[in-house]
Amino acid sequence: GEIPSIDYDIFISSGGPGDPFEGEGEQWDNDFCDLLDQIELHNRINENKKYGFLICHSFQMACRKYGIGKVIRRKSTAFGIFPVFLTKEGEADLIFDGLHNPFYSVDSRDWQVVNPDADSGHKILAIEKERPHVDLERCVMAVRFSNELVGTQFHPEADPTGMKMYLLQDEKKKAIVANHGEQKYDDMLSSLDDPQRIRLTQQVILPNFLNRAINALQEA
Fold first, then answer.
1. What is the pLDDT of residue 134?
2. Which of 93, 100, 94, 80 is nearest to 197 (CA)?
3. Among 202, 128, 129, 196, CA closest to 162
4. Position 35 in a domain
5. Quick check: is 149 in a domain?
6. Neighbours of 167 (CB within 10 A)
7. Is 5 inside any structural domain?
8. Quick check: 85 and 47 in contact, CB under 8 A?
9. Which residues contact 109 (CB under 8 A, 6 or more apart)?
10. Which of 51, 128, 154, 158 is deepest in the core (most CB within 10 A)?
11. Domain of 213: which CATH number?
12. Whole-angstrom Cα distance, residue 81 to residue 167?
């Protein structure tokens, strides 16, 4: 995969699906981690900062790089529309300004980040819903790595129209029904028409990130 140069001011990275360890030690993986290092170094010594937003697979790779908890494979694929719960740090973070707590997002993952290290210096902004019937820790859904670099496990860019087409595919329907039941599948479909769910998430998070970054760059 081709990695952009450090010459840009704003970076948004997604990628995947896949194993966040698969490319470890390969050139493209090294280049990705090197770009994060370059952004960090630039921001340490310059007043005009560079900004990054990491989504899903890129988020998992960054958590692996920075040692934020354990990046592990799930027992089964998570796919669908689910509530995301903000922590106290998340409620105070500007990228979520305008969202409810919890808010709803599109989640698609075979891997996840759990057991975050409280001493890592990074801020855990959001976690997944509590599942009382399952003896598993709630995974990390958003992290602020620095003032300029943030990441989410979920997909803030997902739009209701595209997601509806995806959910109506037979393969996806069968997978969701098998893992969550017919009622949950029907709820996901109906939630796509709710302007307070993923449409609101799409309209808030990335625009907030971009507005903050662009305003800061213009003021620098």
1. 60
2. 100
3. 202
4. yes
5. yes
6. 18
7. no
8. no
9. 17, 56, 60, 74, 77, 78, 79, 153
10. 154
11. 3.40.50.880
12. 10
HSE, CB side, 13 Å, CA atoms: give it for residue 105.
33
**Span 129-142, mean pLDDT?**
76
Per-residue pLDDT tens over the stretch 184-220 = 889 888 888 888 999 999 999 999 999 999 999 999 7
82-125 pLDDT, tens digit each: 999 999 999 999 999 999 999 999 988 889 999 988 777 899 99
